[in-house]
TrEMBL record, chains A, B:
Modulates transcription in response to changes in cellular NADH/NAD(+) redox state. Homodimer. Residues 77-179 form the CoA-binding domain. HAMAP family: Rex. GO terms for biological process: negative regulation of DNA-templated transcription; response to redox state. It is found in: Cytoplasm. Belongs to the transcriptional regulatory Rex family. Residues 14-53 bind DNA. One of its GO terms (molecular function) is DNA binding. This is Redox-sensing transcriptional repressor Rex.
Protein backbone atom coordinates (compact mmCIF):
# COMPACT_ATOMS: atom_id res chain seq x y z
CA UNK A 1 0.00 0.00 0.00
CA UNK A 2 1.24 3.52 -0.80
CA UNK A 3 1.94 5.87 2.07
CA UNK A 4 -1.05 8.19 2.19
CA UNK A 5 -0.77 11.75 3.42
CA UNK A 6 -1.83 12.65 6.94
CA UNK A 7 -4.68 14.89 5.85
CA UNK A 8 -6.13 12.17 3.60
CA UNK A 9 -6.57 9.95 6.66
CA UNK A 10 -8.53 12.68 8.42
CA UNK A 11 -10.70 12.92 5.28
CA UNK A 12 -11.16 9.14 5.20
CA UNK A 13 -12.33 9.29 8.82
CA UNK A 14 -14.78 11.99 7.80
CA UNK A 15 -16.08 9.93 4.86
CA UNK A 16 -16.45 6.92 7.18
CA UNK A 17 -18.41 9.02 9.66
CA UNK A 18 -20.87 10.21 7.02
CA UNK A 19 -21.14 6.75 5.45
CA UNK A 20 -22.01 5.42 8.90
CA UNK A 21 -24.80 8.00 9.16
CA UNK A 22 -26.10 7.00 5.72
CA UNK A 23 -25.91 3.33 6.72
CA UNK A 24 -27.81 4.01 9.95
CA UNK A 25 -30.42 5.84 7.88
CA UNK A 26 -30.82 2.75 5.68
CA UNK A 27 -29.22 4.30 2.59
CA UNK A 28 -27.55 1.67 0.37
CA UNK A 29 -26.06 3.72 -2.46
CA UNK A 30 -24.47 7.17 -2.52
CA UNK A 31 -22.98 9.15 -5.38
CA UNK A 32 -19.55 10.72 -4.98
CA UNK A 33 -21.25 14.09 -5.54
CA UNK A 34 -23.62 13.57 -2.61
CA UNK A 35 -20.94 12.13 -0.33
CA UNK A 36 -18.69 15.06 -1.23
CA UNK A 37 -21.44 17.55 -0.36
CA UNK A 38 -22.06 15.88 3.00
CA UNK A 39 -18.36 15.99 3.86
CA UNK A 40 -17.67 19.46 2.48
CA UNK A 41 -15.15 17.98 0.04
CA UNK A 42 -15.27 17.81 -3.75
CA UNK A 43 -16.09 14.64 -5.71
CA UNK A 44 -12.71 14.55 -7.48
CA UNK A 45 -10.95 14.66 -4.10
CA UNK A 46 -13.05 11.79 -2.79
CA UNK A 47 -12.32 9.66 -5.86
CA UNK A 48 -8.62 10.45 -5.52
CA UNK A 49 -8.53 9.62 -1.79
CA UNK A 50 -10.33 6.33 -2.25
CA UNK A 51 -8.05 5.42 -5.15
CA UNK A 52 -5.25 4.93 -2.60
CA UNK A 53 -6.96 1.74 -1.50
CA UNK A 54 -8.62 0.24 -4.56
CA UNK A 55 -11.79 0.47 -6.59
CA UNK A 56 -14.90 1.14 -4.53
CA UNK A 57 -17.19 3.00 -6.88
CA UNK A 58 -19.41 1.73 -9.69
CA UNK A 59 -19.55 4.10 -12.63
CA UNK A 60 -22.97 5.69 -13.04
CA UNK A 61 -24.20 4.07 -9.83
CA UNK A 62 -22.13 5.48 -7.00
CA UNK A 63 -20.71 3.80 -3.95
CA UNK A 64 -22.26 0.91 -2.05
CA UNK A 65 -22.47 2.50 1.40
CA UNK A 66 -21.93 -0.60 3.51
CA UNK A 67 -19.14 -2.05 1.33
CA UNK A 68 -17.28 1.23 1.23
CA UNK A 69 -17.74 1.77 4.97
CA UNK A 70 -16.40 -1.70 5.79
CA UNK A 71 -13.47 -1.26 3.43
CA UNK A 72 -12.61 2.10 4.98
CA UNK A 73 -12.87 0.67 8.50
CA UNK A 74 -10.55 -2.16 7.57
CA UNK A 75 -8.02 0.20 5.98
CA UNK A 76 -8.15 2.53 8.97
CA UNK A 77 -8.09 -0.20 11.62
CA UNK A 78 -11.43 0.89 13.08
CA UNK A 79 -13.17 -2.44 12.48
CA UNK A 80 -12.14 -3.52 15.98
CA UNK A 81 -12.44 -2.24 19.55
CA UNK A 82 -9.74 0.11 20.84
CA UNK A 83 -9.18 0.55 24.56
CA UNK A 84 -8.55 4.03 25.94
CA UNK A 85 -6.76 5.11 29.11
CA UNK A 86 -7.67 8.57 30.45
CA UNK A 87 -5.10 10.80 32.16
CA UNK A 88 -6.64 13.66 34.13
CA UNK A 89 -10.16 13.23 35.49
CA UNK A 90 -11.04 16.93 35.66
CA UNK A 91 -14.01 18.54 33.92
CA UNK A 92 -12.82 17.59 30.44
CA UNK A 93 -11.81 14.08 31.51
CA UNK A 94 -15.20 13.45 33.11
CA UNK A 95 -16.93 14.69 29.97
CA UNK A 96 -14.81 12.37 27.80
CA UNK A 97 -15.58 9.34 30.02
CA UNK A 98 -19.28 10.06 29.45
CA UNK A 99 -19.16 10.59 25.67
CA UNK A 100 -21.45 8.01 24.09
CA UNK A 101 -19.91 8.46 20.64
CA UNK A 102 -16.70 6.81 21.80
CA UNK A 103 -18.38 3.54 22.76
CA UNK A 104 -20.63 3.69 19.68
CA UNK A 105 -17.55 3.78 17.44
CA UNK A 106 -15.66 1.07 19.31
CA UNK A 107 -13.57 3.18 21.68
CA UNK A 108 -13.87 1.92 25.26
CA UNK A 109 -12.26 3.43 28.34
CA UNK A 110 -10.64 0.69 30.43
CA UNK A 111 -8.54 2.84 32.77
CA UNK A 112 -8.42 6.36 34.20
CA UNK A 113 -5.69 8.13 36.16
CA UNK A 114 -5.54 11.26 38.29
CA UNK A 115 -3.09 12.89 40.67
CA UNK A 116 -5.83 13.81 43.17
CA UNK A 117 -5.64 11.22 45.97
CA UNK A 118 -9.26 11.98 46.89
CA UNK A 119 -10.29 10.75 43.42
CA UNK A 120 -8.03 7.68 43.37
CA UNK A 121 -10.02 4.55 44.20
CA UNK A 122 -13.38 6.14 43.32
CA UNK A 123 -15.33 5.30 40.16
CA UNK A 124 -16.41 7.66 37.35
CA UNK A 125 -18.69 6.18 34.68
CA UNK A 126 -17.85 2.73 36.03
CA UNK A 127 -14.07 3.21 35.67
CA UNK A 128 -11.92 3.10 38.78
CA UNK A 129 -9.46 5.98 39.06
CA UNK A 130 -5.81 5.03 39.60
CA UNK A 131 -2.69 7.06 40.28
CA UNK A 132 -0.72 7.70 37.11
CA UNK A 133 2.41 6.44 38.89
CA UNK A 134 0.73 3.02 38.88
CA UNK A 135 0.28 2.84 35.10
CA UNK A 136 2.65 -0.10 34.64
CA UNK A 137 0.70 -2.15 37.19
CA UNK A 138 -2.70 -1.12 35.79
CA UNK A 139 -1.91 -2.13 32.20
CA UNK A 140 -0.98 -5.65 33.32
CA UNK A 141 -4.61 -6.24 34.27
CA UNK A 142 -8.07 -5.50 32.85
CA UNK A 143 -7.09 -1.81 32.79
CA UNK A 144 -4.82 -2.49 29.82
CA UNK A 145 -5.32 -0.01 26.97
CA UNK A 146 -4.05 0.89 23.46
CA UNK A 147 -4.38 4.67 23.35
CA UNK A 148 -3.75 7.25 26.08
CA UNK A 149 -6.11 10.23 26.23
CA UNK A 150 -4.24 13.13 27.82
CA UNK A 151 -6.54 15.61 29.57
CA UNK A 152 -4.34 16.75 32.46
CA UNK A 153 -3.41 20.33 33.25
CA UNK A 154 -0.71 21.80 30.99
CA UNK A 155 1.85 21.65 33.81
CA UNK A 156 1.58 17.88 34.13
CA UNK A 157 1.24 16.96 30.44
CA UNK A 158 4.88 16.27 29.48
CA UNK A 159 5.56 14.39 32.70
CA UNK A 160 2.50 12.26 32.17
CA UNK A 161 3.39 11.62 28.52
CA UNK A 162 6.80 10.28 29.56
CA UNK A 163 5.16 7.92 32.02
CA UNK A 164 2.78 6.73 29.30
CA UNK A 165 5.66 6.11 26.90
CA UNK A 166 7.73 4.31 29.56
CA UNK A 167 4.78 1.98 30.17
CA UNK A 168 4.95 0.97 26.50
CA UNK A 169 1.93 2.88 25.13
CA UNK A 170 2.57 4.19 21.61
CA UNK A 171 -0.40 6.46 20.91
CA UNK A 172 -1.57 9.64 22.67
CA UNK A 173 -4.64 11.78 21.96
CA UNK A 174 -3.47 15.08 23.41
CA UNK A 175 -6.09 17.57 24.65
CA UNK A 176 -3.49 19.76 26.39
CA UNK A 177 -1.91 22.78 24.66
CA UNK A 178 1.58 21.37 25.28
CA UNK A 179 3.80 20.26 22.39
CA UNK A 180 4.73 16.85 23.75
CA UNK A 181 8.30 15.66 23.30
CA UNK A 182 8.14 11.89 22.75
CA UNK A 183 10.23 9.31 20.87
CA UNK A 184 9.74 9.00 17.09
CA UNK A 185 7.84 5.71 17.44
CA UNK A 186 5.09 7.24 19.59
CA UNK A 187 2.08 8.67 17.72
CA UNK A 188 0.60 11.91 19.05
CA UNK A 189 -2.61 13.48 17.77
CA UNK A 190 -3.31 16.98 19.07
CA UNK A 191 -6.88 18.15 19.55
CA UNK A 192 -7.39 21.87 19.16
CA UNK A 193 -10.91 23.27 19.27
CA UNK A 194 -9.81 26.69 18.07
CA UNK A 195 -9.04 25.29 14.60
CA UNK A 196 -12.70 24.36 14.24
CA UNK A 197 -13.78 27.82 15.38
CA UNK A 198 -11.79 29.23 12.47
CA UNK A 199 -14.14 27.69 9.91
CA UNK A 200 -16.99 29.58 11.61
CA UNK A 201 -15.00 32.84 11.66
CA UNK A 202 -14.25 32.46 7.96
CA UNK A 203 -17.89 31.71 7.17
CA UNK A 204 -19.16 34.67 9.24
CA UNK A 205 -16.56 37.01 7.71
CA UNK A 206 -17.04 36.05 4.07
CA UNK A 207 -20.63 34.77 4.13
CA UNK A 208 -19.33 31.64 2.40
CA UNK A 209 -20.24 28.44 4.24
CA UNK A 210 -17.10 26.32 4.69
CA UNK A 211 -18.30 24.34 7.71
CA UNK A 212 -18.55 20.56 7.87
CA UNK A 213 -22.26 20.66 8.37
CA UNK A 214 -24.04 17.35 8.77
CA UNK A 215 -26.57 16.31 6.16
CA UNK A 216 -30.07 17.42 7.01
CA UNK B 1 -11.98 36.05 -4.26
CA UNK B 2 -12.62 32.50 -5.41
CA UNK B 3 -14.76 30.26 -3.27
CA UNK B 4 -12.33 27.98 -1.50
CA UNK B 5 -13.25 24.46 -0.45
CA UNK B 6 -14.21 23.72 3.14
CA UNK B 7 -11.26 21.45 3.79
CA UNK B 8 -8.81 24.09 2.54
CA UNK B 9 -10.03 26.43 5.30
CA UNK B 10 -9.31 23.78 7.93
CA UNK B 11 -5.83 23.45 6.41
CA UNK B 12 -5.36 27.24 6.45
CA UNK B 13 -6.27 27.24 10.15
CA UNK B 14 -3.68 24.52 10.68
CA UNK B 15 -1.03 26.49 8.78
CA UNK B 16 -1.88 29.58 10.83
CA UNK B 17 -1.55 27.61 14.07
CA UNK B 18 1.92 26.34 13.17
CA UNK B 19 3.02 29.74 11.84
CA UNK B 20 1.96 31.20 15.18
CA UNK B 21 4.17 28.69 16.99
CA UNK B 22 7.10 29.57 14.72
CA UNK B 23 6.44 33.27 15.30
CA UNK B 24 6.35 32.74 19.07
CA UNK B 25 9.66 30.85 18.78
CA UNK B 26 11.18 33.86 17.00
CA UNK B 27 11.43 32.17 13.58
CA UNK B 28 11.21 34.70 10.72
CA UNK B 29 11.40 32.51 7.61
CA UNK B 30 10.05 29.05 6.86
CA UNK B 31 10.29 26.93 3.72
CA UNK B 32 7.14 25.35 2.31
CA UNK B 33 8.85 21.97 2.87
CA UNK B 34 9.30 22.63 6.60
CA UNK B 35 5.84 24.14 7.05
CA UNK B 36 4.38 21.14 5.22
CA UNK B 37 6.21 18.72 7.50
CA UNK B 38 4.97 20.51 10.61
CA UNK B 39 1.38 20.41 9.38
CA UNK B 40 1.49 16.88 7.98
CA UNK B 41 0.66 18.24 4.53
CA UNK B 42 2.76 18.26 1.38
CA UNK B 43 4.53 21.36 0.03
CA UNK B 44 2.62 21.35 -3.27
CA UNK B 45 -0.68 21.36 -1.34
CA UNK B 46 0.44 24.32 0.77
CA UNK B 47 1.49 26.31 -2.29
CA UNK B 48 -1.85 25.49 -3.94
CA UNK B 49 -3.88 26.46 -0.87
CA UNK B 50 -2.07 29.76 -0.42
CA UNK B 51 -2.46 30.53 -4.11
CA UNK B 52 -6.19 31.10 -3.45
CA UNK B 53 -5.26 34.34 -1.74
CA UNK B 54 -2.24 35.73 -3.52
CA UNK B 55 1.52 35.45 -3.56
CA UNK B 56 3.08 34.90 -0.15
CA UNK B 57 6.27 32.96 -0.85
CA UNK B 58 9.63 34.15 -2.11
CA UNK B 59 11.26 31.67 -4.46
CA UNK B 60 14.38 30.10 -2.93
CA UNK B 61 13.75 31.88 0.39
CA UNK B 62 10.48 30.54 1.76
CA UNK B 63 7.66 32.33 3.52
CA UNK B 64 8.00 35.30 5.84
CA UNK B 65 6.34 33.85 8.94
CA UNK B 66 4.81 37.02 10.32
CA UNK B 67 3.60 38.36 6.96
CA UNK B 68 2.02 35.05 6.01
CA UNK B 69 0.45 34.67 9.45
CA UNK B 70 -1.09 38.15 9.31
CA UNK B 71 -2.36 37.58 5.78
CA UNK B 72 -3.94 34.27 6.77
CA UNK B 73 -5.54 35.83 9.84
CA UNK B 74 -7.00 38.60 7.72
CA UNK B 75 -8.32 36.16 5.13
CA UNK B 76 -9.83 33.94 7.81
CA UNK B 77 -11.25 36.76 9.93
CA UNK B 78 -9.20 35.76 12.97
CA UNK B 79 -7.35 39.09 13.24
CA UNK B 80 -10.08 40.27 15.62
CA UNK B 81 -11.73 39.16 18.85
CA UNK B 82 -14.74 36.84 18.62
CA UNK B 83 -17.20 36.53 21.47
CA UNK B 84 -18.50 33.11 22.45
CA UNK B 85 -21.71 32.13 24.23
CA UNK B 86 -21.69 28.74 25.98
CA UNK B 87 -24.80 26.55 26.16
CA UNK B 88 -24.59 23.80 28.76
CA UNK B 89 -22.31 24.32 31.77
CA UNK B 90 -21.70 20.63 32.53
CA UNK B 91 -18.28 18.99 32.69
CA UNK B 92 -17.44 19.78 29.07
CA UNK B 93 -18.81 23.32 29.30
CA UNK B 94 -16.79 24.06 32.42
CA UNK B 95 -13.66 22.70 30.73
CA UNK B 96 -14.30 24.91 27.69
CA UNK B 97 -14.76 28.04 29.84
CA UNK B 98 -11.35 27.35 31.36
CA UNK B 99 -9.44 26.66 28.11
CA UNK B 100 -6.63 29.19 27.90
CA UNK B 101 -6.10 28.58 24.16
CA UNK B 102 -9.43 30.24 23.39
CA UNK B 103 -8.46 33.55 24.95
CA UNK B 104 -4.93 33.32 23.54
CA UNK B 105 -6.36 33.09 20.01
CA UNK B 106 -8.92 35.86 20.48
CA UNK B 107 -11.99 33.82 21.46
CA UNK B 108 -13.60 35.24 24.61
CA UNK B 109 -16.63 33.83 26.42
CA UNK B 110 -19.07 36.64 27.22
CA UNK B 111 -22.12 34.57 28.19
CA UNK B 112 -23.03 31.10 29.47
CA UNK B 113 -26.38 29.38 29.75
CA UNK B 114 -27.68 26.32 31.58
CA UNK B 115 -31.04 24.77 32.37
CA UNK B 116 -30.05 23.99 35.98
CA UNK B 117 -31.65 26.67 38.16
CA UNK B 118 -29.08 25.99 40.89
CA UNK B 119 -26.35 27.09 38.45
CA UNK B 120 -28.22 30.12 37.08
CA UNK B 121 -26.94 33.31 38.72
CA UNK B 122 -23.65 31.73 39.81
CA UNK B 123 -20.32 32.46 38.12
CA UNK B 124 -17.95 30.02 36.42
CA UNK B 125 -14.57 31.41 35.31
CA UNK B 126 -15.96 34.89 35.88
CA UNK B 127 -18.97 34.35 33.57
CA UNK B 128 -22.45 34.57 35.08
CA UNK B 129 -24.70 31.67 34.12
CA UNK B 130 -28.08 32.61 32.61
CA UNK B 131 -31.10 30.57 31.62
CA UNK B 132 -31.10 29.78 27.92
CA UNK B 133 -34.68 31.06 27.71
CA UNK B 134 -33.23 34.51 28.45
CA UNK B 135 -30.83 34.54 25.49
CA UNK B 136 -32.59 37.45 23.73
CA UNK B 137 -32.25 39.61 26.84
CA UNK B 138 -28.64 38.57 27.48
CA UNK B 139 -27.40 39.44 24.00
CA UNK B 140 -28.74 42.97 24.29
CA UNK B 141 -26.14 43.63 27.00
CA UNK B 142 -22.46 42.88 27.67
CA UNK B 143 -23.30 39.18 27.26
CA UNK B 144 -23.64 39.71 23.50
CA UNK B 145 -21.74 37.11 21.46
CA UNK B 146 -20.97 36.09 17.86
CA UNK B 147 -20.66 32.31 18.06
CA UNK B 148 -22.69 29.85 20.14
CA UNK B 149 -20.80 26.90 21.65
CA UNK B 150 -23.26 24.05 22.13
CA UNK B 151 -22.28 21.66 24.92
CA UNK B 152 -25.69 20.61 26.26
CA UNK B 153 -26.94 17.06 26.57
CA UNK B 154 -28.02 15.47 23.30
CA UNK B 155 -31.69 15.68 24.31
CA UNK B 156 -31.60 19.48 24.56
CA UNK B 157 -29.33 20.24 21.58
CA UNK B 158 -31.91 20.84 18.81
CA UNK B 159 -34.17 22.85 21.10
CA UNK B 160 -31.28 24.99 22.20
CA UNK B 161 -30.08 25.48 18.60
CA UNK B 162 -33.51 26.82 17.63
CA UNK B 163 -33.40 29.31 20.50
CA UNK B 164 -29.92 30.40 19.41
CA UNK B 165 -31.08 30.89 15.82
CA UNK B 166 -34.22 32.77 16.90
CA UNK B 167 -32.03 35.16 18.88
CA UNK B 168 -30.21 36.02 15.64
CA UNK B 169 -26.96 34.09 16.15
CA UNK B 170 -25.63 32.63 12.89
CA UNK B 171 -22.77 30.38 13.96
CA UNK B 172 -22.75 27.28 16.20
CA UNK B 173 -19.80 25.17 17.31
CA UNK B 174 -21.59 21.91 18.05
CA UNK B 175 -20.06 19.51 20.59
CA UNK B 176 -23.21 17.36 20.77
CA UNK B 177 -23.66 14.25 18.61
CA UNK B 178 -26.94 15.65 17.22
CA UNK B 179 -27.27 16.62 13.55
CA UNK B 180 -28.74 20.05 14.06
CA UNK B 181 -31.51 21.19 11.74
CA UNK B 182 -31.04 24.92 11.20
CA UNK B 183 -31.78 27.40 8.39
CA UNK B 184 -29.34 27.56 5.46
CA UNK B 185 -27.91 30.90 6.63
CA UNK B 186 -26.74 29.49 9.97
CA UNK B 187 -23.22 28.02 10.03
CA UNK B 188 -22.70 24.85 12.08
CA UNK B 189 -19.32 23.27 12.76
CA UNK B 190 -19.46 19.83 14.37
CA UNK B 191 -16.69 18.74 16.73
CA UNK B 192 -16.11 15.01 16.82
CA UNK B 193 -13.20 13.66 18.84
CA UNK B 194 -13.52 10.18 17.38
CA UNK B 195 -12.32 11.43 13.98
CA UNK B 196 -9.00 12.37 15.58
CA UNK B 197 -8.74 8.98 17.24
CA UNK B 198 -8.91 7.43 13.78
CA UNK B 199 -5.54 8.90 12.79
CA UNK B 200 -4.05 7.12 15.80
CA UNK B 201 -5.79 3.84 14.93
CA UNK B 202 -4.46 4.06 11.38
CA UNK B 203 -0.94 4.82 12.62
CA UNK B 204 -1.01 1.96 15.15
CA UNK B 205 -2.43 -0.46 12.57
CA UNK B 206 -0.08 0.37 9.70
CA UNK B 207 2.94 1.67 11.62
CA UNK B 208 2.80 4.72 9.34
CA UNK B 209 2.63 8.00 11.26
CA UNK B 210 -0.23 10.10 9.88
CA UNK B 211 -0.80 12.21 12.99
CA UNK B 212 -0.62 15.98 13.12
CA UNK B 213 2.26 15.95 15.52
CA UNK B 214 3.59 19.30 16.66
CA UNK B 215 7.11 20.30 15.72
CA UNK B 216 9.68 19.25 18.30
Amino acid sequence: MHKIPNIAVIRLALYAKHLEMLHNDGVELVSSVKLAKMCGANPAQIRKDLAYFGQFGVRGVGYYVNDLLNALKEVMGTNRTWRLGLFGVGNLGKALLGFEQFAQRGFIFTAAFDKDIDLVGTEVQGIEISQSEDIKEVIKGPGCFDIAVLATGADRAQDCAMRIVEAGIHAILNFTPIRLVVPENVFVENVDFTVRLHALCYSLTTGSDVTQRHPR
